[in-house]
């Protein structure tokens, strides 16, 4: 959950009222926010910088409210959006109407996208704010909103990066292109000499803030650039803007460009930026579009600041929230949350107009949530559930827990291993020729070679655990009670979980009698008798061959006529592949038939 810091005096000035700390905390709670801390700039710097006397001495004593904002409410990440939302919530003003105008073809700002950008950041959107006026406080808020968006929806600039430029210092049309880092030079923001792409990387390699973004494009063969018609480089996204077009307090016309790997998020970001700060334009809440011309010649206009309508049922809203309000009152509640609403002709449904500031509303459930916030969570009456149920542990988990203690009392230590493993762990390392012989569920885009498939047996994880603890004194006796995943076309999702017990004994000799004794103990607890006659009732061992086990030292475990697992001494080749030097015996059984 992001936290914003706003100066108390500016906040109260914008709200038109002074509150005590407790009163403002209650207001935040009613609006669905939380006042996290009341502090000062000096105290904040003192916490972050320690005893850096110069920074602390230069800080102000202005009281700052640190407010926790829901992660999906991008419109509340700055003072402008926060105060606008609160004033609408209080009924002091009506929601503004955001407009997007398209200038004549000869006046519109155009950005031509070159095909090379597809190698690094393929998308760009842009907008223009005309006749803007900045104060020192609104300027700082403008910069701070960019930083908050970069950390939040932009995912530290990996998905989207924002560039803002003084439009009067550059000349369109612009191009968005990509060049090798050695083939361009420009003056980065607040620098006084030119650097190549490699030079920029070296310059900011130790920079406190910017070094965390260098990796995004550092290894790319080309770096993205936004360039004007005179060849002036406006920005090197996602690292730094150019010094030539930097924003100042005197800037009147601002070009906002967002380069991205995710077009949807770029559109959200540019919508948020222009909606929050178009209130400082001479023509309030009005933005000028830009034309983005793709390499194939097609063009799109951004931003669109689109409004959309959603029809919800007042009855459903009441049922979901747990209240009994008339459709008229539900409409009033939604209007408080910046969602302009009106009753439909039948008087039962509500047409909700979702503004471009509310990209968090993607489903009727989000609208119902706003109804609950506006109504007040503390005012919702508490009721008993309409159906009575008795909660209890699932049978397979209950059985697993009942077996864990006796196995541990038998001298085994419980382990918890990864559900994902490599293909070799369940195939070639266990003596099989290929993973294709196993009904394993594969991960389509594995991040590492260690997590390629879902395990079909618990044995590899336990052998890896023993290998990582070879310095421990012998014997090493470990067990695990967990699920394996088996591919099964007969199930709805194509796979099923199977709860198993696996135990391994590692010592100077294999100790087959140790795991056999553990198997007998488990079966005694499960009240399954030993059956030497090998009839369907009870359990017995049946000799078999398995490449993971020593020849002649492996058996199937047959219980009530069903094959539930295997027991035996592991093959030396298997031990070698798991980097073990002492012999091991193991038992693995499926416990689901005993539920």
UniProtKB/TrEMBL annotation:
Using the UniProt record, give the first listed, main subcellular location: cytoplasm
**Any one annotated GO CC term:** phenylalanine-tRNA ligase complex
* InterPro entries per UniProt: aa-tRNA-synth_II/BPL/LPL, B3/B4_tRNA-bd, DNA-bd_dom_put_sf, Phe-tRNA-ligase_IIc_bsu, Phe-tRNA-synth_IIc_bsu_arc_euk, Phe-tRNA_synthase-like_B3/B4, PheRS_beta_core, PhetRS_B1
For molecular function, the Gene Ontology terms on record are: ATP binding; magnesium ion binding; phenylalanine-tRNA ligase activity; RNA binding
Which CDD domains does the UniProt entry name for this protein? PheRS_beta_core
Tell me yes or no: is Magnesium among this UniProt entry's keywords: yes
Q: What is its EC number?
A: 6.1.1.20
**Where found?**
Cytoplasm
| Protein name, UniProt field | Phenylalanine--tRNA ligase beta subunit
Q: Specify the species.
A: Asbolus verrucosus
Q: From which lineage does this chain's organism come?
A: Eukaryota, Metazoa, Ecdysozoa, Arthropoda, Hexapoda
